[in-house]
Amino acid sequence: MTFEIDAKRGVANHYGVRTTNGKFGAQQSTKNGIVKSAVWDFDYNDLPNYGSNGLQLSIPANATIVSAKLYVDVAFTSTSTTTDLNIGLYQAGGTVIDADGLIAAAEATQTAIGTAGNVVTGAGALVGKTIGAAAGELVVAPSVDDLLTGAGRIVVEYIYNKD
Chain-wide mean pLDDT for the chain? Predict the structure, then answer.
């Protein structure tokens, strides 16, 4: 699968099957009625971040976060034993909505993310609440920038409120 950015119109086009686009994320179909799921797959050296290129999946403004989970596919290792992950939402321009509003470092500790197969359930400040008046893009940030290995998947379930 490839992406192409049209310089004239500033739109992104993709070729091939588009399901989850790695760190850019994608919405999955759901049979839960009004609950929607967004998924991001990422590696330790290519973490999801906000951006202005239009490729990042945005959770719509005024959406209510139902749940956030991190699935550890490959154990995260680092040069220290204190590297945790903060997982939150930012606006496309970099304004912080809540840097650890989905999964805080206290939940995604080095111990929790250091074993493949672990599931970390988020209890950040945004879970169970609206994200506010701006759309949010997922950001995964290590507490110490020294990750050596690791891969994961984040699934965020949300309800789109049309306010």
Answer: 86
The Cα–Cα gap between 161 and 159 comes to: 6
Q: Are 159 and 35 in contact (CB under 8 A)?
A: yes
Token digits of residue 149: 């290995």
Nearest-angstrom CA–CA distance, 86 and 126: 13
Domain spans of the chain, in order of start: 2-159
Sheet holding 119-121, edge to edge: 26-28, 35-43, 147-159, 64-78, 119-121
In sequence order, the 6+-apart residues with CB closer than 8 A to the CB of 154 are: 39, 40, 42, 48, 68, 69, 70, 71, 87, 102, 103, 138, 140
Tens-place pLDDT, residues 60-112: 999 999 999 999 999 999 998 889 999 999 999 999 999 999 999 999 999 99
pTM: 0.80
Alpha-carbon span 110 to 77, nearest angstrom: 8
Three-state SS sequence of 104-151: CCCCCCHHHHCCCCCEEECCCCCECCECCCCCEEEEEEECCCCEEEEE
Residue 5 reports pLDDT greater than 70: no
